[in-house]
Prior knowledge:
By secondary structure, this protein is mainly alpha-helical. It folds into 2 domains: 3-377, Sodium/glucose cotransporter (Up-down Bundle), CATH 1.20.1730.10; 404-539, no CATH class. It has 22 helices and no strands. It has helices at residues 3-30, 36-39, 46-72, 77-100, 106-114, 116-149, 153-171, 173-200, 203-213, 225-238, 243-249, 255-286, 293-304, 307-344, 350-374, 379-403, 409-429, 443-462, 476-494, 496-502, 505-523, 531-539. The termini are far apart.
Amino acid sequence: MTVYGAWIIGFALFYTAALIFVGQFAKRRAAQGGEGYFVGGRNFNRWMVCFCITGLFSGSTFIAVLELAYLQGVSAIWYGVAETIQILIIAFVIIGPFRKKLVVTVTGLIGDRYGRSAKALAGAITAFTFPMWSVATAIAFASALHVFTGISLTMSVAFTAILLFIYLQAGGMWSIAFTQTMNFGVFMLMFAIGIYAFFVNPGIEGLQQFAAQRPQMFDFDSVGLQVIVAWFGTFLVNVILAQAAFQMALSCKTPEEGQKGLKLAAWFGIPFTVCAILFGIAAAAVVPDGKLGLIALPQYLMQVLPAPLVGLFFLGVWACALSWGAPCQFSGATSLGRDVGSAVFPKASNDRLVTYTKWSLLLLTVLMIVFGLMRTEQSAWWNIFAWTARNSATFAPVVAALFWPQVTRAAVLASLGTGFASGVTWYYLGGWHVSQFYLNIHPVWIGMSVNVITIIVMTLLFSAQSWKLRRVSEKPAHYAALAVGAVLAGVVAVNFDVLHTKGLVGLLVFSALVALFISVIGILDTVKASGARAAQNKAS
């Protein structure tokens, strides 16, 4: 182990002890009863929401953008822009209605509307995808740690997973609030050290020389239009499914307080993107031949900084991994323990559901370690699989729960199953590759398209005798959505070969189906579910 590694391990152990100590204070707050464990008793102020959301989104964005900036340059900024837009949409559109409904999880929302079986299926699918997202970011950090210490990626992932379990099970959402606030302070220290390293080498003059040598690194479209579109599509779709973010933001005292916290988080996220690009390009200028940014970055820092500063910087990178992993693990455990638990045992008390959630957190910790063993060096694979599995199952049911009361339990169960199965099957047909997909179509677009088609077709079949078209003057926006869908379908038909080559067919077809989905919800006036049917849905 190098002297740099010794400092990193020393700081990590000290910070671990601090997190566990703070977890004991969180445990006292969570023990106050009610929904304290799951949503902090809905007592978070704007700053607590801000630090929670900043840690979740901006922490993971920092790692992703840093990696992209090392390889592609300033065009990585679009990833950060897409993430910021997602936060603002949640703030202005989603947080108010969800807070008024007292939503805890997306899977709970589905279950409250469509019954226990839908809650159990949606909760199980969602729960088992969260450790995949957690392990993806943990692997990215472990890759950098390995350069300094020689510690294996698997051991680093296991240590991170166990630490998350120790402090999360104690205080639940309060643990996340306290630790995300601590992590934010570490982020600021990391930025200060990184900026100092930049001015040491390469500095402004060195950056200008690098720009002359590799001008493509300073093109805002060097990463490619397809990738940029995919980033925006991913974040826009996730607006309605960002369960971990919802659970933290919905812990606010009022919808207005939560909205203010999210807007602050959007502003606070800007330095994460800017600094990640700066550090990534600096590493590319000094260590130009690396294959991965998080491997080249420690090699760069060892050339320009003393060991203690390098240790503090990578404490910040680890805080990024923890800030993403903690909400993911806890939200997944909430879906499994609270939602699946209440579906299987409908008479369980809140204390019993907290116990189920703690056991679920232990199970997801084991899964996170197992996932790390299975594909230790392929963090992107876990992101793709998790995104495909969760979104392919739950997108249409969540939209229906919010906007289409005519949808039946049978239609939701069918869409959950067909969406999940089709998305995962499409990924399998592509050989589980991280960038080359079957027929050049990302599996998530297939799964979500089948998800939408299934819920539309089954709902219309169940209400076939009661269709009635509303006039354009009644629903102009929905007729406009129908027109947009038709235009998108026409664009795909006319330009299929070009779009297929660029990998945009799946995204555009899904966009057309979403436009159709919106139009059907508003244009077709079908008989709403009777009180008896609604009661049956909820009880099933």
